């Protein structure tokens, strides 16, 4: 157990998650559903199976020995998380990277962090009943405050910019529609944390097979992400049929096909690495591994906000809005340090 190392792993996961959508911006001639599914094959199928097969021992044997209940719940929570993932993509379209991720991940952080100990009956004894748990809970609250400040920055931006200015950075900017989608996405996306918790028996089996502690979560990702793939696959095919965009998998107007697929491969693989590093970070958090979700969410918002600044999503805003953006970053960084310190005390 090394909470400092765990925080570093979660920051790497946040960097991956906060960056993955950038390559999609370079895709030309494809509708959202086309490039989302093309990238999803790498996110939810290719990368999970490839890396789990390389980094763990006897992957197929591990999954075949796993209790049916664990596999089923991992898959179901993956399906539910997939609903959040679908609407997450729509949130990016309506709110942009920085504001969109802030709102979605705010709800996701609260539900994904606090529900597992509540469900397991450990919230009073492990969280409220220990100094470490209380400090971690403080870190969660600080994280939510930081997310709220980021949301306030978005509202301030909405008031300051003209419609033309907003759409210059985000072509489909729509605050009201985006916030509605973001709330749903955030709540459903928290199901990923439940899926990882349901996979604890699978982790125990892969450890018995000789897998390193650091990689024990990779077989669980295979199952959870298979559920997420199912939801996304069905919905994207429906959109392909409805919008008559299925032909785009075989042609792209205004761009080479190879370029589009390469960008989707980079985006999808980068997306997967958020949970690759997440499972590594979780192994370093000991009895308080539920706090990993807060660390992950805060790190994602930090890096997505930085990307939003780099991509000029806040261009044209006034001093108040920019100050709120900067304050949200400082508060979120502080929340990760508080949670990390709480885990450090917990190892004593």
Question: What would your notes on this structure say?
Answer:
Helix content is about 80%, strand content about 0%. With about 350 residues, it is mostly helical. The N and C termini lie close together (about 10 Å). The protein has helices spanning about 5-20, 30-55, 60-65, 70-95, 95-120, 125-130, 130-160, 165-170, 175-190, 190-200, 200-210, 220-245, 255-280, 290-310, 320-345. It is globular. It has one domain (about 5-345). The model has no long low-confidence stretch (mean pLDDT about 85). The protein contains 15 helices and no strands.
Q: Main sheet, how many strands, which sense, barrel?
A: none
What is the number of beta strands?
A: 0
Coarse shape: globular
> What's the number of domains?
1
For the termini, the CA-CA separation is 10 Å
Average pLDDT taken over every residue: 84
Q: Briefly note the structural class of the backbone.
A: mainly alpha
Number of helices: 15
Unreliable segments (pLDDT under 50, ≥5 consecutive)?
none
Radius of gyration: 20 Å
Share of helical residues: over 70%
SSE order, as H and E? HHHHHHHHHHHHHHH
Beta strand %: under 5%
Q: What are its keywords?
A:
globular; 0% strand; 348 residues
Topology (SSEs and partners):
Elements: H1 3-19, H2 32-55, H3 59-65, H4 68-95, H5 97-119, H6 123-128, H7 131-160, H8 163-169, H9 175-189, H10 191-198, H11 200-208, H12 218-243, H13 257-282, H14 292-310, H15 319-346
Helix pairs in contact: 1-13, 1-14, 1-15, 2-12, 2-13, 4-5, 4-9, 4-10, 4-12, 5-7, 5-9, 5-10, 5-14, 7-15, 14-15
